[in-house]
Amino acid sequence: MSTQKMHIDVYERNWLIFSAILLVLFATAVSVAAFGMGIQVPAPEQRVDPRTVATDPSSPWSNPGLREIAPGKYDAYILAHAIPNWEYLPKELTVPAGSVVTFYVTSSDVQHGFKIQNTNANFMVIPGQVSKLTIHFDKPGTYNYICTEYCGSGHGVMYGAITVTP
Ligand code: CUA
Fold first, then answer.
1. pTM reported for the whole predicted model
2. Nearby residues of 126 by Cβ (< 8 Å), 6 or more positions away
3. DSSP letters along 88-109, please?
4. Helix-strand-coil percent breakdown of the chain, rounded to 5?
5. pLDDT interval class at 160 (50, 70, 90)
6. Which of 21, 72, 94, 132 measures 20 to 30 Å from 139, CA to CA?
7. With 70 as the cut, is the pLDDT of residue 2 above it?
8. How far is the CA of 110 from the centre of ligand 1 (A)?
């Protein structure tokens, strides 16, 4: 039995070692972030059928709007659609200052966006999926929500408003 030693250029060998070390470093960083610090990528909140989400009586988006689930805590079901006209349903929400509102937003047709001005809420609204985010409204005022994904000729008029009362 004869043994043969494979010849690897010294630079190639060093780069192989360096790449292997990088892989271990990245895997460690991702593991520490995910399991040590609890940082997770956003996962789909819920899947819905965009063809029936606005009409099925068992779907909360067949009757979109605010639900008070506890004193000062609300769920807001918002439907975005381009057909028959570009709008959010409902177009207006009113909550008292200090409210905590969890938004559940979906689309019954094409992809839209949902950005609430003067907050850090800004996400895509994808037909078939539900986007969820919780916002604290401490300061009274008007917070417009606008569509941030081009969705057709009426994209520019697609907006609504949250009124936070004192
Ligand atoms: Cu909806 Cu742009």
1. 0.77
2. 106, 107, 111
3. EESSEEEEETTEEEEEEEEESS
4. 20, 40, 40
5. very high
6. 132
7. no
8. 8
Q: Is 115 in the pocket of ligand 1 (CB under 6 A)?
A: no
- Beta carbons within 10 angstroms of residue 75's beta carbon: 16
Task: Report the nearest atom of ligand 1 relative to the CA of 111.
Answer: 1
d(CA 107, CA 78): 9
Q: Indicate if the alpha-carbon torsion angle 50, 53, 56, 62 is positive or negative.
A: negative
Phi and psi at 151, nearest 5°, equal: -130, 15
pLDDT at 117: 96
Question: From the CA of 61, how far away is ligand 1's center (Å)?
Answer: 18
- CA 40, CA 78: separation in Å to the nearest integer? 25
Residue 158 Cβ contacting ligand 1 at under 6 Å: yes
Q: What is the pLDDT of residues 92-112, one digit of tens each?
A: 999 999 999 999 999 999 999
Q: Render pLDDT for 133-145 as a digit per residue (tens, 0 to 9).
A: 999 999 999 999 9
Instruction: Say if residues 92 and 160 touch (Cβ distance below 8 Å).
Output: yes
The SS3 call for residue 79 is strand
